[in-house]
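ok so i was messing around last nite and threw this chain in just to see what happens. nothing serious, just curious
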Amino acid sequence: MSALLAAFAPIWMLTAIGYGVGRGRLLGAGAEAALGRFVFHVAMPAALFTMVSKARPGSFANPSMVAFAAGTALVCGLGFLLSGRLFGRGRADRAIGGMVSGYVNSANLGIPVAVQVLGDASFVAQIILFQVLLVSPVVLTLLDSGTGAGAGAGAGSGQGATGVGTGAGAASGRGVVVRRMLTMPVRNPIILASLLGLAAALLGVRLPHPLAHSLELLGSAAVPTALVALGLSLRARPADAEAAATGGPRPARAETVVAVVLKTVLQPLAAFVVGGPLLGLPGPQLLAVVLCSALPTAQNAFVYAQQYGLDTRVARDAVVASTVVSMVTLSLATWVLGGV
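result:
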C-alpha cells in the first residue's frame, strides 16, 4: 500500500498545486489554456518521440497485449456508445467519452506502479506504444472529423460539430473532412511525433546527444504541466452553475460516474476474463494485464478535450475520480492475484 501511495502522491500534489495556483489567480486568466497548448503542441510530442524512438515496434505482439487491447476496445467502445445514447453527445464528445473510459494513465502512474508492484515496467512500455500508435490516432481522427477543425480551432465552443449540411454544401463539407483526415498526421503534433519516433525506431536512428537530451528535458515537462493544468481546471466555473440554473446541458456528474465505472471496474474485469479463462496467461502476466487495465484515466483525455474546444467537465472529473477509486481497485487486484 505504501508503494501505491508513493506512486499516487505526485499526481495529487501537482493537481493540488494547480488548483491552488488557479484559486489564487497567480498565473492570470489564460493560464489553463496556455499550459494546455504547451503540453499538447510542445512538451507531449517531445516526450512521445523520445519514448517511441527507443521502443521496439514489434514488442507488443503477445498474448498479454491481446488481453489488454481487448479490454481497452470493449470499454472505449461502450464509452463512445453510451456518451451518445445516454447523454446525447456529438461525435467529438463521444470520442472523449470513449477515451475517458479506457485510456489508462500508463506513463506517470503506470510506470511507478509497475516498478513497485511488478518489479518491471517492460509491459507498461508496450502499453504506451499501443496507446500512442493505435488508440490515440483513432481518438484524434474522431475529434478532428467531429469538430471539423484542428486542435485549438474550436476553443470555447463547448460542443463539437457533427454535421456538414446538405446538397453541394454537404459534398464540399465531406471533401473537407476527408482532406483533413488524410493530412492530420502532419498537422497534429501528437501523431506526427509518434510517427517520427516509430520511423526512428525502425531505422535505428539515434539523435546526437545534445539534441536527444534537450528533447528528454522538454518531454519531462509534459506530465507535471498537464497535471498543473488539470488542477487549474478544478476551480469553480460560473458557466457550470449557469448551465444548471438555466436548464442547459445535463449535469456531467452521471456521465462521469458511468465513465469511472467503465474505467476502474469493467476494464480490469474484461482484461481478467480474456487473459485468464480465454488465454490462460500465467499468474505474473495476468497480474500485469489486470493491474495495468485498472490504472485510472490519463490526463491526456482532458488535454485533448481542452485543445479541441469541447466540454472538459467529464474528462476533468473522471481523471480525478478514477485516480481516487483506482487506489482501491489497484490494491484489490494486487491482493487477489497474489502480487507482492
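not much to say yet. Confidence is low (pLDDT under 50) at residues 153-167, 238-250.
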